[in-house]
Design goal:
InterPro entries: Alpha/beta_knot_MTases, tRNA_m1G_MeTrfase_C_sf, tRNA_m1G_MeTrfase_TrmD, tRNA_m1G_MTases_N, tRNA_MeTrfase_TRMD/TRM10
Number of domains: 2
CATH architecture of the largest domain: 3-Layer(aba) Sandwich
Keywords: Cytoplasm, Methyltransferase, S-adenosyl-L-methionine, Transferase, tRNA processing
Structural class: alpha/beta
Number of helices: 10
Shape: elongated
Pfam families: tRNA_m1G_MT
Function: Specifically methylates guanosine-37 in various tRNAs.
Largest sheet: 5 strands, parallel
CATH class of the largest domain: Alpha Beta
Helix content: 25-40%
GO molecular function, one term: tRNA (guanine(37)-N1)-methyltransferase activity
Order of helices and strands: EHHEEEHEHEEHEHHEEHHH
Distance between the termini: 53 Å
CATH topology of the largest domain: Alpha/beta knot
């Protein structure tokens, strides 16, 4: 699979794509990630890619011409997606959809915005990673590279890993444990040490349902709620302790941070 990223910070994106799982996949020839410098499309001594907005206002705007020149020169694989707030939200189904294709490209915005004619004349659409503001599209591009690249066949090595992760079936993943079996008075559930694979699979399914209901009930609602079989499973298998939600304070058993004042 070929994925092109167009950015004014090519070293930032290329460094990320060259590390860890993505880096190994690139070296193995499973992923062809190409990063292009948008400043290569400029023709002035300062290599300026931005200018003040017509009509006034704060910030600068990425110009259409340098971006279009780079796109025309490198002919990146389509679709070419602008990372921005107006696009389809990245989720696991969309990551799978992109991973199933032959390739795609990402255009990283910067400053206040891109010239609107880039949206209408250069790219094929927008892609969003969430409803919050970043300084530019580079971090978003890294998120997309990681989410999609790991799903390309052969990249993860163990294909079963992707099938059992969070969101694979519209649920959060079941809790995971490793050695030691006893840590600070907290024990690994006995079922995971039983060697009974059918019992373990049933327990994991129940815990995924418990965890999703406790932390992300919206995911259950999106899949139509719980089936009668799932309700029976939850009634039969007790949940393990769940972590506190973000902002809810320190985890049980750990003291709060020291007061700087």
């Amino acid at each position: 699979m070929r994925i092109d990223v167009l950015t004014i910070f090519p070293d930032l994106v290329d460094g990320f794509a060259g590390a860890s799982l993505l880096g190994r996949a690139r070296r193995a020839g499973l992923l062809d990630v190409r990063v292009h410098d948008l400043r290569a499309g400029t023709d002035d001594p300062h290599r300026s890619v931005d200018d003040a907005p017509f009509g006034g206002g704060a910030g600068m705007v990425l110009r259409a011409e340098p971006l279009a020149r780079v796109v025309e020169a490198v002919e990146p694989p389509r679709p070419l997606l602008l990372l921005g707030p107006g696009g389809r939200r990245l989720d696991q189904p969309l990551a799978r959809e992109l991973a199933a294709g032959e390739g795609f490209s990402l255009l990283c915005g910067r400053y206040e915005d891109v010239d609107h004619r880039v949206r209408t004349q250069v790219v094929d659409g927008e892609l969003s990673i969430g409803d919050y503001v970043l300084a530019g599209g580079e971090v978003a591009a890294m998120v997309v590279l990681e989410a999609v690249g790991r799903l390309v066949p052969g990249v993860m090595g163990n294909e079963a890993s992707a099938e059992e992760e969070s969101f694979a079936d519209g649920l959060l993943e079941y809790p995971q444990y490793t050695r030691p079996a006893s840590w600070r008075g907290h024990e690994v559930p006995e079922v995971l040490r039983s060697g009974d694979h059918a019992r373990i699979a049933r327990w994991r399914r129940a815990q995924a349902l418990h965890r999703t209901r406790a932390l992300r009930p919206d995911l259950l609602a999106a899949r139509g709620g719980l089936s009668p079989e799932e309700e029976d499973l939850l009634a039969d298998v007790a949940p393990v302790d769940q972590p506190p939600a973000a902002g809810a304070g320190p985890a049980p058993g750990f003291p709060p941070a020291a007061d700087d004042g």
